[in-house]
UniProtKB/TrEMBL annotation:
Positions of transmembrane segments: none
Alphabetical list of CDD domains matching this protein: SDR_c
Protein name as annotated: SDR family oxidoreductase
UniProt xrefs under PANTHER family: OXIDOREDUCTASE, SHORT-CHAIN DEHYDROGENASE/REDUCTASE FAMILY (AFU_ORTHOLOGUE AFUA_5G02870), SHORT-CHAIN DEHYDROGENASE_REDUCTASE FAMILY PROTEIN
InterPro entries in the cross-refs: NAD(P)-bd_dom_sf, Sc_DH/Rdtase_CS, SDR_fam
One protein family per Pfam: adh_short_C2
Keywords (A to Z) from UniProt: Oxidoreductase
Similarity annotation: Belongs to the short-chain dehydrogenases/reductases (SDR) family.
Keyword Amino-acid biosynthesis: no
Organism expressing this protein natively: Rhizobium bangladeshense
Amino acid sequence: MPPTCSPAARVATVSTAQVRWSGCRLRSRSARRSKDLRRSRSGLDRPRRGLAIQADSADPDAIRRAVSQTLDTLGGLDILVNSAGIGTAGMTADLALADLQAMLDVNVRAPVLFAQAAIPHLSSGGRIISIGSALAERVPFPGVTAYAMSKSALLSLTRGLSRELGPQGITVNLVLPGSTDTDMNPANGENADYQRSLTSLGRFGEPREVASAVAFLAGPAASLITGAVLSVDAGFNA
């Protein structure tokens, strides 16, 4: 991925470990597991300075500590990327309360809490970018209702924050990936062929393609874009 930062180094807080950035100081927070933390370290493409912190998105205190440690170590904050997410498949009637609560804690509450912690430290030119899901706008099969509901909340969060933070010169945008080849949803998985059949391009996305969309929105070329939704879904929602 080509560098997208301005000549002055910028500090990015990323709420999961899959984004690769060149030329920025990058603080990456693992969503849930230690192996994610190791991936975050290996995925950094020689940043000017990097800090990897393991924290639990479901823990409000951990979120505040992660942002605080970023500020203490890197001296500021320019970009927040909310990309931690979890999902539990199943019919709504059978969904356990604990599974529902876990999805709401990570997929809905955590982005709000990260924004609350980050906003006081963002200035003009700052960015908040969230990673949602193509299922936020279209649910073409059963068994993902609660997950889709949790991701659709980011639509309103993005639009509302763009109004709140626009006067400060801070942009807020949302990326909606479709089926992407990850451990959570591998391209050789049981339902992968069906998912491909729902897209225009007939294929899964790669994590780097989603990361490229995030990098664009974080860069100077996207300075006039805010409150927007960028679909990176191979035409799933066409």
